[in-house]
Every structure is written in structure tokens, then in C-alpha cells.
């Protein structure tokens, strides 16, 4: 059985929602390039980590760094950016998160 990654953050539920983002479609966690740890969101990383975040460079967008909180499938960054839903369970993602891409990924 595959191990489900630990998702860090502030009041994270079993589908990776946190105190900052907790709607029905807020079901992804991001593995931060700086530390390799999954956090529910950028704000959770800012509050809990002891270092500044690093953005994922474009050359690494084929890395599995996005966790679907609905089914625990790990997507590549490119897969996540190209789809509004999980390719495995088809749960929709928050399309407003696109506005935050520059916090996580080099654009």
C-alpha cells in the first residue's frame, strides 16, 4: 500500500483544506520546492516553515508535486496546470488558484 504524504498547515482536514482555503474545491496540497514538504497552501508554509519558499523552476514541472486531497493521487505540476480536475477521481480543483501560480511556480 502506498504511503499518503503528510500535509502540513493550519487546521488541515482529510482532503487537504486548511483555515485559509476550505471550499469544496480546495482539495490540493503543494510539495514545496524548497523543503520537499507538502503544505495545504502558501500561507500555511509561511506560518509553519522556518525558511522562505522557493518556486518550482519550469524545467522541473514534470515533477510530482501536487497532491489531490480527494484521492491522494500525486500529479505533476504540468498536469495540474493543464487540468481543472484530478485525472484519477475527477474531483474539480479551485480554478481561482491559477491566480496564485506565481507564488509556487516560475512563470
Automatic annotation (TrEMBL):
<dbReference type="InterPro" id="IPR008913">
    <property type="entry name" value="Znf_CHY"/>
</dbReference>
<dbReference type="InterPro" id="IPR052604">
    <property type="entry name" value="Mito_Tim_assembly_helper"/>
</dbReference>
<dbReference type="InterPro" id="IPR037274">
    <property type="entry name" value="Znf_CHY_sf"/>
</dbReference>
<keyword id="KW-0862">Zinc</keyword>
<dbReference type="GO" id="GO:0045041">
    <property type="term" value="P:protein import into mitochondrial intermembrane space"/>
</dbReference>
<dbReference type="Pfam" id="PF05495">
    <property type="entry name" value="zf-CHY"/>
</dbReference>
<keyword id="KW-0479">Metal-binding</keyword>
<dbReference type="GO" id="GO:0008270">
    <property type="term" value="F:zinc ion binding"/>
</dbReference>
<feature type="domain" description="CHY-type">
    <location>
        <begin position="11"/>
        <end position="91"/>
    </location>
</feature>
<keyword id="KW-0863">Zinc-finger</keyword>
<dbReference type="InterPro" id="IPR016694">
    <property type="entry name" value="UCP017292"/>
</dbReference>
<protein>
    <recommendedName>
        <fullName>CHY-type domain-containing protein</fullName>
    </recommendedName>
</protein>
Amino acid at each position: 500500500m502506498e504511503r499518503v504524504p503528510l500535509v502540513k498547515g493550519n487546521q488541515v482536514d482529510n482532503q487537504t483544506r486548511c483555515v485559509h482555503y476550505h471550499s469544496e474545491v480546495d482539495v490540493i496540497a503543494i510539495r514545496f520546492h524548497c523543503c520537499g514538504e507538502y503544505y495545504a497552501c502558501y500561507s500555511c508554509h509561511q506560518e509553519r516553515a522556518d525558511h522562505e519558499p522557493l518556486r518550482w523552476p519550469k524545467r522541473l514541472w514534470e515533477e510530482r508535486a501536487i497532491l489531490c486531497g480527494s484521492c491522494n493521487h500525486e500529479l505533476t505540476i504540468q498536469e495540474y496546470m493543464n487540468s481543472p480536475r484530478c485525472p484519477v477521481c475527477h474531483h474539480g480543483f479551485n480554478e481561482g488558484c491559477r491566480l496564485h501560480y506565481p507564488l509556487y511556480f516560475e512563470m
